UniProtKB/TrEMBL annotation:
<protein>
    <submittedName>
        <fullName>Uncharacterized protein</fullName>
    </submittedName>
</protein>
Length: 171
């Protein structure tokens, strides 16, 4: 079972079992990110195209989701194979709720990954026009988020997402 995910610098050759997750495209950057995955009995490393933005995993869904400046990757936990990917133009933050739901933020909006594919993302309605939306911390099943009001950047707002009902409230 997957226990921990950690961004690392490029490992020494042979230090870990390494898996390269690359997608051929003329538009790829020359940047790479490395993530160490700690399981019950093994440690392995994934190499991903693009600068690291975030990563999380959902045991109930059996997936790892990695976000870089180039792509969003969905990896099967058991097989360590990429099951979906999409060019990343907007995702700026990622988290997994205590219930195992993966949440993505574009800075302006909030989405939940309903299944094991990126196309299953559904928007969660926010009570404000958000800018620079970031995930802060969990208090039980409540996720605290912070943002600025769009076009009124001096108005910093704290939002709370109930992870069970997926309702967002302003503080």
């Amino acid at each position: 079972m997957l226990l921990n995910i950690e961004q690392i610098s490029q490992p020494y050759s042979g230090e870990y079992e390494e898996i390269i997750f690359d997608i051929e495209s003329n538009w790829n950057s020359s940047d790479w990110s490395w993530i160490r995955f700690e399981e019950d009995t093994t440690i392995w490393c994934g190499e991903f195209r693009g600068k690291y933005i975030g990563a999380t995993f959902s045991v109930p869904k059996g997936i790892i989701v990695v976000v870089t400046t180039d792509y969003i990757y969905v990896i099967d936990i058991m097989s360590k194979e990429m099951i979906d990917s999409e060019r990343n133009f907007e995702c700026t933050d990622i988290t997994c709720t205590p219930l195992g739901d993966v949440l993505l933020s574009s800075g302006y909006g909030l989405e939940i990954l309903k299944e094991r594919t990126i196309s299953s993302c559904e928007a969660i309605v926010l009570p404000v026009n958000a800018d620079s939306l970031r995930f802060v911390k969990y208090r039980g099943n409540i996720l605290e988020m912070n943002c600025d009001e769009y076009c009124n950047w001096s108005n910093n707002i704290t939002l709370f997402l109930n992870c069970e009902t997926l309702c967002v409230m302003e503080s």
